[in-house]
Amino acid sequence: MKHFSDLSPTAERIVDIAERLIQQRGFNGFSYEDIAGEIGIRKPSIHHHFASKESLALTVAQRYTDRLKQKLLAIEESQSSSPAQLAGYVELFDETYTEERRMCTFGMLGAECGTLSESIRFEIGRFFAVNLAWLAEVFGRGRIAGELSFSVSDKDQALIFLSALEGAMVVGKGMETASCPKQVGQAMIASLSAAASNAVASQPLTGSD
Amino acid sequence: MKHFSDLSPTAERIVDIAERLIQQRGFNGFSYEDIAGEIGIRKPSIHHHFASKESLALTVAQRYTDRLKQKLLAIEESQSSSPAQLAGYVELFDETYTEERRMCTFGMLGAECGTLSESIRFEIGRFFAVNLAWLAEVFGRGRIAGELSFSVSDKDQALIFLSALEGAMVVGKGMETASCPKQVGQAMIASLSAAASNAVASQPLTGSD
DNA sequence: GTCTATATAAAGATAGAC
DNA sequence: GTCTATCTTTATATAGAC
Fold first, then answer.
1. Is B204 on the interface with A (CB under 8 A)?
2. Which of residues 140-159 of A touch B (CB under 8 A)?
3. Going residue by residue through chain B (209 aa), what tens digit of pLDDT does each one get?
4. DSSP conformation letters of B47-83
């Protein structure tokens, strides 16, 4: 298919359910039968829409990244300050987690990537790269504007931020906590902002490359 | 069994292999056949040592936490400063990741916990609790000694630190990066230490509870 | 697009011999 | 402790009718 708007209503339902199952149980933790049972049709009907489980997961993955990009643009348009943009970003993780304690689709797939095909591994790398590039930009702007202060490169700060949110979902699920990504995200933003108010010279030690 | 030293040589090999498979492929990503093939015995022989896959995973989990506790004690004994203790802690994650790009056993199980039994979920919660308690102590001592500076509670800082390292393994695997947990860990320690050198007043905003 | 029927393989597990 | 044989269930997938 060219794009996700080309998906038939049933295909879209399948993708919706598969996405949720990947987030809650992992790629190796659900089957076509689970999806069929939920929709009320039979397994072969799922195969009619997605010949293989891998192609289904690939569609889930591509749509997820596509939607993320849209949400990042929406954050940039609605929020002008860097701390507010970060808060919007944290909210994306929190919404996902709060909704039936789902993991980030790519947090789950990243953990499982030792069992996944090359085409899906490619999508995993692409998703994280999109996140890191966007975060590094936000951290760069925030640092220059004096809204955020940190002593590592923009790229390292982006990696810390993304990792902490992905990890917060894992730790939160493992500890059966209600709001882990939000707690971690807000604490990090508080740290970065508090440092900016105190800081005399908030130059990064290692540049912004 | 009372303790892990009671494991027969074959049982121990089984646990070793199961641990590695959980870390690399997840609980739902391997089978008794994988273990049997690697050891050179048959599936029923694995069942002789561990009647169910779940009981095997439980032993893997309990041994993993047991060993972690020992390693934390070793770090406390060999390192006196808080930044050095954190560096030792980061090294634990880095060693695991560097060894064939393994995940933390509980990072993987935490992500998959929607498919796991109550007894394993209990172990997941226990593991993270042990980590958070140890880290919060280290952060508290480091803050009081003026070696570390951060503007959230000791507990929140511990949660950020653990989450970031767990997440770094996920992101690192997903991006096929060589050294993600080390990079994230060292960057965080640098941040916390650099802040301590600059800080005028490094009181936590929200107390140390 | 959906169904029944079926193929094929793998999974977790047990019985009982050696 | 290990084996062969077997059970039972599930998974992914295909063929072909409606």
1. no
2. 150-152, 156-157, 159
3. 558 889 999 999 999 999 999 999 999 999 999 999 999 999 999 999 999 999 999 999 999 999 999 999 999 999 999 999 999 999 999 999 999 999 999 999 999 999 999 999 999 999 999 999 999 999 999 999 999 999 999 999 999 999 999 999 999 999 999 999 999 999 999 999 987 887 644 455 454 55
4. HHH-SSHHHHHHHHHHHHHHHHHHHHHHHHHH--SHH
